[in-house]
Amino acid sequence: MARAYEVEGLVSFTARGGSSPLGRIRTGVPPPWYTWVVPSAKPRVQVTVDNELAAAVAEFGGGKSRSRVVHDLALRGADAIRAEQQRRQEGLEFLRRLDAGEDDRFDFSVSAQLHAGR
Predict the structure, then answer these.
(1) What is the mean pLDDT of residues 17-32?
(2) What's the CA gap between 69 and 75, in Å, rounded?
(3) CA-based nearest residue to 10, from 28, 26, 30, 27
(4) Do residues 57 and 96 both lie within one domain?
(5) How many domains does one find in the chain?
(6) b/e per residue 80-118 (b: at least 16 CB within 10 A)
(7) CB 103 within 8 A of CB 97
């Protein structure tokens, strides 16, 4: 019995017989290139390519594979979130120092005058 396989919509081949899932390759790419016999050492993530992600991949892809672009976007997004959290923490710390009177860079009397003039 022959089985037809398609790998990521790019390459198809037919396998016959044998005890391995690959059987005897009739056409297609050599068996060492496939990963279902030996699974990846790293866990994989399934991502739905919605309109926003498709636009980002198209904008920043630059000829790279879609998986590489999604990987790079995820890492840059993590960096951006990390930086945003750091800025927020620094802002909260500044407000805490102002409230405790440990920072004299903000003059509350000037602020009160400005608000009174409105």
Answers:
(1) 53
(2) 10
(3) 28
(4) yes
(5) 2
(6) eeeeeeeeeeeeeeeeeeeeeeeeeeeeeeeeeeeeeee
(7) yes
Around Cβ 26, how many Cβ atoms within 10 Å? 10
Better-predicted residue by pLDDT, 63 or 105:
63
What are the start-end ranges of the E strands in the chain? 2-7, 11-16, 24-25
Which neighbouring-strand residues pair with 13?
A: 5
The model's pTM = 0.55
Instruction: Say whether both 55 and 95 belong to one domain.
Output: yes
Q: Torsion-angle region of residue 113: left (phi > 0), alpha (psi -120 to 50) or beta?
A: alpha
Q: Which domain holds residue 14?
A: 2-33
Say which amino acid occupies 43.
Answer: P
d(CA 58, CA 45): 20
